[in-house]
Amino acid sequence: xxxxxxxxxxxxxxxxxxxxxxxxxxxxxxxxxxxxxxxxxxxxxxxxxxxxxxxxxx
Amino acid sequence: xxxxxxxxxxxxxxxxxxxxxxxxxxxxxxxxxxxxxxxxxxxxxxxxxxxxxxxxxxxxxxxxxxxxxxxxxxxxxxxxxxxxxxxxxxxxxxxxxxxxxxxxxxxxxxxxxxxxxxxxxxxxxxxxxxxxxxxxxxxxxxxxxxxxxxxxxxxxxxxxxxxxxxxxxxxxxxxxxxxxxxxxxxxxxxxxxxxxxxxxxxxxxxxxxxxxxxxxxxxxxxxxxxxxxxxxxxxxxxxxxxxxxxxxxxxxxxxxxxxxxxxxxxxxxxxxxxxxxxxxxxxxxxxxxxxxxxxxxxxxxxxxxxxxxxxxxxxxxxxxxxxxxxxxxxxxxxxxxxxxxxxxxxxxxxxxxxxxxxxxxxxxxxxxxxxxxxxxxxxxxxxxxxxxxxxxxxxxxxxxxxxxxxxxxxxxxxxxxxxxxxxxxxxxxxxxxxxxxxxxxxxxxxxxxxxxxxxxxxxxxxxxxxxxxxxxxxxxxxxxxxxxxxxxxxxxxxxxxxxxxxxxxxxxxxxxxxxxxxxxxxxxxxxxxxxxxxxxxxxxxxxxxxxxxxxxxxxxxxxxxxxxxxxxxxxxxxxxxxxxxxxx
Lengths: 58, 584
Known about the structure:
- The structure holds 2 protein chains of 2 kinds.
- Helix content of chain A is 38%, strand content 31%.
- Chain A is built from 2 helices and 4 strands, in the order ββαββα.
- In chain A, strands 2-4 form a two-stranded antiparallel sheet.
- In chain B, the strands form 5 sheets. In chain B, strands 1, 2, 3, 4, 5, 6, 7, 8, 9 and 10 form a 10-stranded antiparallel beta sheet that branches. Chain B has a 4-stranded antiparallel beta sheet with strand order 19-18-17-21, with no helix packed on it. A 3-stranded antiparallel beta sheet of chain B has the order 16-22-20, with no helix packed on it.
- Chain B is of the alpha+beta class.
- The interface between A and B is large, with 40 and 81 residues.
- β3 of chain A pairs antiparallel with β14 of chain B, so a sheet runs across the interface.
């Protein structure tokens, strides 16, 4: 059995070791809870802009 | 200490550099400073820490047999000779390995009892953090380590004595110079003539002009006797290399050395020379300890000597065994699958004829086999298969971390969906929702884009994001999204967890086939496992990552998918989300 997780475009920056193994067609043995990746800078920036837009000058 | 006997005290006194111990400590400190514990390390940095000599000295076992030990580090495994029939085998086998700052430093030693006819049996193992051992203040560098029972790591089956220490960088340089001299010294007088010196420079791939060679020779010949001896050659390599690279290519494997610094180039050359000439006591060249224990591979290794630097690894379905990179230990491990199953999977999934046969009725057969297997594994009688299963995967199932005692499992399926003790799987950066975590104990592949996944892994011609998620869930954002595949093997903990924190928005069940999800099928252009298999697609709405699609895909035999959370639930990253079990 298999689980596939799909993240939206530019949402995640997957850890480089996982990417580089996969690009060698090599699977990586991992365990539940190990780090997978971090929110991408672009997604973070979009979120920050959206937060700023919601701010009001009083 | 373990300095070479040929490296004399006089040389130590004349050398204004700090002591060996001080130099090594400095290297370790440098290494520590470079490693930021808060930053996830990558494998890109090829920054050597140095050469480590590891000697497997002896073991004390609990019964008499003929023993061999395997040392695994990163993508390499080495083995000792086979001992006499004894409970106290002595090997005294030494291997030099490179320890890199960002590379693997967790060495595993596996001890096998050997059989003349049948395959060798793994009896015990231990793991050594080389960085930790090497930073300890020990005069004899001897470590006596307990060997753990493969199926129950809390029990010991014996102990093993290992010596490991950093080779002095200066000793490495001197040793290398001696090796070079021995190779190029055609008349065997321990000195290089100008002609031999020229051959040496040429062998390094260095295209310097004849006049420059003469200049270098005169520079090296400090005492002006018309010859270059070991010390003069060592000095030339040490001093000249500081200014310009004398060594462009490794004469053994042809590797371009310009990308390394001087010491790293010499480390590369030393190891390459050693392996190329079969100079090391421990036999190398195996990828996993399991391979190293095979009788036929041992024979093969006696016939061939090859440099580990140019071995072409075959991964995925093109390899004869399925190899996986263990992220925790940074070692290659081999997946246990019966050879007959691999052959039959290839026959079915990697040929058009095989898949055509599947299309003609075998799809239903796979489903009915899986349903039948589900009924069997839910019966009380199936509980008797649990010990056999544990024995087969004895070095891959840690009984100590299972939440309940084995007696509590009344059926095989209950054991199959076993829970783990609290804390067995620590969640990375638990408080930070901007960091996603792995969803299962599994073999993982991850790709930045769907195109990459098709290029490197999923070869089924009909694969598409819409095919995987279904029309209702697939959006343009998912269409160009990133993809992470978590493949569970039979021995794995079969509960899956949420990789992110968020609200469970929906579940969509998609009926389908139950092909195997093994790479042999996934890598086949004729088979479309992920878009044709039975699956449940869930969407988790998160504040950090937007929407994340979570697809649980059933496989042959293990086709039952159960979610333990409901639509509308808030799930924290690392929380259990559901499980796979035997059934259709």
